[in-house]
Automatic annotation (TrEMBL):
Residues reported in the UniProt entry to bind substrate: 27-31, 39, 43, 71-73, 75, 77, 194, 200-202
EC assignment: 2.5.1.31
Annotated binding of Mg(2+), by residue: D26, E213
Taxonomic lineage: Bacteria, Pseudomonadati, Pseudomonadota, Gammaproteobacteria, Chromatiales
Superkingdom in the source lineage: Bacteria
BP GO terms, sorted: cell wall organization; peptidoglycan biosynthetic process; polyprenol biosynthetic process; regulation of cell shape
Record: active site: D26, N74
Pfam families in the cross-refs: Prenyltransf
Keywords, in A-Z order: Cell shape, Cell wall biogenesis/degradation, Magnesium, Metal-binding, Peptidoglycan synthesis, Transferase
Metal-binding found in the keyword field: yes
Subunit structure comment from the entry: Homodimer.
Membrane-spanning parts: none
Protein name stated in the entry: Ditrans,polycis-undecaprenyl-diphosphate synthase ((2E,6E)-farnesyl-diphosphate specific)
Length: 262
């Protein structure tokens, strides 16, 4: 019989505020259609929700916010919509970066950025450099990102290291592998939100969300405001994360912290 090993929890199961929130910002097109507007009007309106969620994250003490802005599959949309989305990224970077910097937000873009227009790549690099020392909130924008792409690029780099003799394939474990994924320096998402009513992952952070709490809401992204986000955070605060353990084991690890944390 296996002897009982000490209970070790991989993150902060009793915390009422998630350290890391990942959001699929979905429903812009439908929001616009309901109002007889072109889909792109929904994307423009969605920028306001980004602002609201960033500000609320800072207020509520969320440390990392990862937003899915453009998937590797979204290139297949009509050319005109893709072009407007690229222009919107450029203009949003221009209009929002100063405000983000003032709020001590660090901005990073995850995904394969080489596919973006030069001008956008340049803006991204500037914004990342400007905000690099900020530590109040880590804002990660996933653009031309796919969960499978992330796992694949990690595998490719690991294979190259092995071929060069710098690592032994036998050494590869979950910790080493995770070190090659996007944002290896940050904890994994605790809360995974999808707006817009669909209940699927759509190739967002796959490996890193293995134990994330999922939250789906019918609210379309442009209508997702501070209150709607607050509801998602409150819902998270009422859950018990077990990571394969029993509820009693989890309670015995940190029975006080659940109530002690503000
Ligand atoms: C999400 O909203 C934004 C992007 C994928 C860029 P959608 O554009 O997918 O909106 P719906 O799902 O069509 O309503
Ligand atoms: C996921 O939304 C991507 C982003 C929000 C950026 P989609 O609208 O592209 O997802 P599907 O196609 O409905 O799965
Ligand atoms: Mg959609």
């Amino acid at each position: 019989m296996k002897t009982a090993t000490p209970v070790v929890l991989p993150s902060d199961p009793d915390g009422r505020t998630p350290r890391h929130v990942a959001i699929i910002m979905d429903g812009n097109g439908r929001w616009a259609k309901q109002r007889g507007l072109p889909r792109t009007a929904g994307h423009r309106e969605g920028v306001k929700s980004v602002r609201a969620v960033v500000e609320e994250s800072v207020r509520r003490g969320v440390q990392i916010l990862t937003l899915f802005a453009f998937s590797s599959e979204n290139w297949q949309r009509p050319r005109s919509e893709v072009n407007i989305l690229m222009e919107l990224f450029i203009s949003a970077l221009r209009s929002e970066v100063r405000r983000l910097h003032e709020s001590q937000v660090r901005l990073r873009v995850i995904g394969e950025r080489a596919a973006f227009p030069e001008k956008l790549q340049h803006r991204i690099a500037e914004a990342e450099a400007l905000t690099a020392e900020n530590s109040r909130l880590n804002l990660q924008v996933a653009a031309n990102y796919g969960g499978r792409w992330d796992i694949m690029q990690a595998a490719r780099r690991l294979a190259a290291e092995a071929r060069a003799g710098r690592i032994d394939p036998e050494e590869i474990d979950e910790a080493l592998f995770s070190g090659y994924l996007s944002f290896p320096d940050l904890p994994e998402p605790d809360l995974f939100i999808r707006t817009g009513g669909e209940q699927r992952l759509s190739n967002f952070v796959l490996w890193q969300s293995a134990y994330a709490e999922l939250y789906f809401t019918d609210t379309l992204w442009p209508a997702f405001d501070e209150a709607a986000y607050g509801q998602a955070l409150d819902d998270y605060g009422r859950r018990q994360r077990r990571f394969g353990l029993t509820g009693d084991q989890v309670e015995s690890v940190a029975p006080v912290s659940r109530y002690a944390r503000g």
